[in-house]
UniProtKB/TrEMBL annotation, chain A:
Location of the region described as Disordered in the Swiss-Prot/TrEMBL record: 284-307
Subunit architecture: Component of the proteasome complex.
Originating gene: PSMB11
Entry protein name: Proteasome subunit beta
Organism: Pygocentrus nattereri
UniProt keyword Signal, yes or no: no
Listed CDD domains: proteasome_beta_type_5
PROSITE patterns named in the record: PROTEASOME_BETA_1, PROTEASOME_BETA_2
Function: Component of the proteasome, a multicatalytic proteinase complex which is characterized by its ability to cleave peptides with Arg, Phe, Tyr, Leu, and Glu adjacent to the leaving group at neutral or slightly basic pH. The proteasome has an ATP-dependent proteolytic activity.
Subcellular location: Cytoplasm; Nucleus
Biological process terms in GO annotation: proteolysis involved in protein catabolic process
UniProtKB/TrEMBL annotation, chain B:
Native species: Pygocentrus nattereri
Entry GO CC: cytoplasm; nucleoplasm; proteasome core complex
Cross-referenced PANTHER family: METALLOPROTEASE TLDD, PROTEASOME SUBUNIT BETA
Keyword set includes Nucleus: yes
GO process annotations (BP): fat cell differentiation; immune system process; proteolysis involved in protein catabolic process
Protein name: Proteasome subunit beta
Amino acid sequence: MLHPSLGKILLSCLERDLERIQFLDGFRGAAVPVLWNFMYQSDDHLPYSLPSISVQSAIPLYISPSVPLPFPLGHGTTTLGFVFQGGVIAAADSRSSCAGLVACPESQKIIPVHSHLVSTTSGTSADCALWKRILARELRLYQLRNRRRLSTGGAAKLLSHMLHPFKGTELSMDAGTQSKGTDGKKTGSVSETGPRLYYVCSDGLRLQGELFSVGSGSPYAYSILDGNIHWGLSVDEAVSVAREAVYRATHRDAYSGNNVDLYHVTAKGWRRRKREDLKEEYYREKERERKRVEERRREIENKKQTK
Amino acid sequence: MALLDVSGFSSFSGFGKHRQAQLVDRPNHYSFGAKSQEFAVPVGVDPSTFLKSCNCEDGVSIDMNHGTTTLAFKFRHGVIVAVDSRASAGSYIASKEANKVIEINPYLLGTMSGSAADCQYWERLLAKECRLYKLRNKQRISVSAASKLLSNMMLGYRGMGLSMGSMICGWDKKGPGLYYVDDNGTRLSGRMFSTGCGNSYAYGVVDSGYNEDMTVEEAYELGRRGIAHATHRDAYSGGVVNLYHMKEDGWIKVCKEDVSELIHRYRKGMF
C-alpha cells in the first residue's frame, strides 16, 4: 500500500508530465482533459487500483472537434510479430512516409514499453508515440501500486480502453504488444507465463494471437510467415524468417523500406538486434543469384566437355 | 445534291468530325467491326456517366474488385501459370471450380481476373482474332501481338466499366513470353506477374523462392505455394489450383489440387 504523502508526490510529478503532453496534443485538439479527470481524484484513503476511465459528470463533456486529416492516411508500414518456443519476435521496417515523401528513413517503429513488453506501431507516428508513452506511464504506476507487473493482456486491454473515447475521431493507430510473461512474484492470483501477443487497433479491436502483421506491407509478409512459422523454430531461424518477411514486404510495398528492426523478447526481457539496412540484403541476394547462375553455366559446360 | 438535302439523309461523316452513335440494323453480328472500326454501346444509357454515379460515396457504390489470385512467371524452362478457381459475387461463392485460364491455342494461354463475363468474352474474341491471323498469314501470332490486340480492345472501351486483369503467356520465336493486360489498356511485359486481390500474398512467396534457373519441379511447387498461401489469407480466392506449364512445344496442364490439402501439407507442424 502506497504511503499517502508519497502518493501525492507522484501525482504532482505526473501533473507536470501531463502539462507537457497536453501541449503536444493541443495541435490535434484531442480530448485530453476528458481522460485525465480520474487522475486528480484525491481520495488517498482508498486503495489504488487500475485507474478507472469512467467519466463522472452527466453534462456533455468538452470534446474539441478533431482536426480533419489533410489526406487519407494509410498505414504505410510493415510490422510483424509472432510467438514461438524461444519467446516473441517483433520486426518492423523503418520508413516514415508522408503521402509521397519519405519523411524519415530511420524511424523507430518498435517501442519498448517496459523491460518485458515491446510494442510495434503503425498509423500516424504522432499518435503512436504519444499513446505508447502514456501506456508506459500507466504500467509503471500499476507496478508501483500493486507490486507486480501488469500482464500483457491487461496492458492490451488498458490501451484499447484508453483509445475508446477517441473512437470515431480520426485517430489512427495499430499496436502489437507482446511480452514473455514473468512468474513468481505474484500474490496468489493466476500467473500468466509464456510469450503473448496482442493486436490492438484504434477502432477498439483487441485480439490475442500467435502471428500478426500490420500495415500496407502486411500481405506480402503474411504469405512468407504462414509457410515458415511453427512453434519449434530455433531463435536463429525465427530471426531470419522475420527478416526475410520484412525484406519481401519492403521489396514490393512503396511505403515500407530502408532498415529492419528486430526485437527478441524472452523471460529475461527484450533484446534488440543491430539495425540492418535492407539495401545490403538486396545486393547480397543479387550476388547469390549471380553466383548460382555462373555455377550452373560451368556445370553445363563441364558436362558438354566430358561428353 | 438537292434530292439528298430534301430527303434529310445525312451520310456518315467519318473521322475528324463528331462521331455519332447510330442505330444500325444488321442481319447478323458476325461481321461486326470487319470492314470499318466500330464500337457497340448499349442503347440509351451512357456507360461512363452511369458508372461514375455508382462509384461515389453517397448512394449505391459498386466496387469492381478483381476477386481472385492468378500468377505467372517466366523461368529457364518456360512459363508457369497458376490460378485459383473461386468465382464470387459479393460475398456469395458462385462457383468453386471456375475455369480462369483460357486455352487460346496450343501455344497461347490467357488468365482471367476481374469480371468473369468481361474476361470470358474478350478472351474468346482474342482467340478468334488469333485464329484469323494464323489463317491469313500462315504463321502463328506472336505473344506480343496477341497481347496488343487485347489491350487495343480494352482501350476502345476505356472508361465504360470493363473490369479485366489478364496475363497472356506463350512461347513464340523470341522464346517464352509473358504480358500483363489490364482493363485500363495497360500492357506490360515482365518476368513475373500476379493479379487479383490476393496478388500481394502471392508476390511475397514467389519473390522469395524465385530464381532464374529453377528446376521444373521447383517451379511447379513455387506456383502451387503462391496460390495456396494467397487463398489462405484472401477471402475471395479459393477452390483448387490449376497449374499450367508453357513449354517450347506447347502448354501442358500439370495439376489441379485442392487448396485446403495443400495448406495442410505446408503448415504441418504449426500449432
